[in-house]
């Protein structure tokens, strides 16, 4: 299938590794020009070199940190300087520290609210006028399957990410008539460094081995395994595509059937 995004300009947040990096690769392979951002200049430079070596879409990068108060201004200027505008925005952020509801201090809530919610919303607002003017845009927000089924020992994530769900659905209704879609993509257990960290934390908390934790978790997934980054990224690329123009306001799961809700 031709996704119809050759030459489209895409910004992928938190794309130095993991899901963000996978999405950048998938979009570039479809011919999109991608702008990667994150905190590690070494990883970003290496990622872009690899993408450019494939010879499909072009890749560029810039360092930026979602916890920085100047993040939105930095990224808005970067998009204008490097691309002159934007067609595809992939909102992505790192996850918060594991813990229970009793571990949620006011300081933690405020810190992660800004990096996981507020700056994603305000960056989207800053880039949205350009999409409206050109009559085409894709806004994809990566969250977590905890939005629909709260995950044990991830109280901060379970609390903050649903705020993005309400925002994304509201936004989708506001811009649907302008050629712009807004969707959410909810990963389950996808094999990344983040999942390793969470499995490690669970092993430490329970006094069990990482192998036992992983075997138990995968046994609860109908697909019987963890997902691959390329599988997740392919789903993201489709939601950012031209053929997906009538899909908006949706929350799409990529979790191997793990969530039990309808």
TrEMBL record:
It comes from the Bacteria. Belongs to the short-chain dehydrogenases/reductases (SDR) family. This is 3-oxoacyl-ACP reductase. SUPFAM superfamilies: NAD(P)-binding Rossmann-fold domains.
């Amino acid at each position: 299938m031709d996704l119809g995004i050759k030459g489209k300009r895409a910004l992928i947040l938190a794309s130095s590794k993991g899901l963000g990096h996978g999405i950048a690769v998938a979009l570039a392979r479809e011919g999109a020009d991608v702008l990667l951002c994150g905190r590690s200049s070494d990883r970003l430079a290496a990622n872009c070199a690899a993408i450019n070596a494939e010879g499909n879409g072009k890749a560029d990068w810039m360092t930026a940190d979602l916890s920085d108060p100047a993040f939105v201004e930095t990224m808005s200027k970067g998009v204008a300087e490097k691309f002159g505008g934007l067609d595809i925005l992939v909102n992505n952020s790192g996850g918060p520290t594991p813990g229970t509801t009793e571990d949620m201090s006011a300081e933690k809530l405020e810190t992660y609210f800004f990096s996981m919610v507020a700056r994603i919303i305000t960056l989207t607002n800053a880039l949205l006028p350009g999409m409206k003017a050109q009559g085409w845009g894709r806004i994809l927000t990566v969250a977590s399957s905890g939005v629909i089924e709260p995950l044990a020992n991830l109280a901060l994530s379970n609390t903050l990410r649903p705020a993005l769900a309400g925002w994304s659905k509201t936004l989708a209704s506001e811009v649907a008539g302008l050629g712009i879609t807004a969707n959410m993509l909810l990963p389950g257990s996808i094999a990344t460094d983040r999942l390793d960290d969470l499995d490690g934390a669970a092993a430490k908390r329970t006094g069990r081995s990482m192998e036992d934790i992983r075997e138990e978790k995968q046994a609860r997934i109908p697909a019987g395994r963890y997902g691959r980054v390329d599988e997740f990224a392919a789903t993201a690329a489709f939601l950012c595509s031209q053929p997906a123009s009538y899909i908006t306001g949706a929350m799409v799961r990529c979790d191997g059937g793990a969530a039990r809700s309808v």
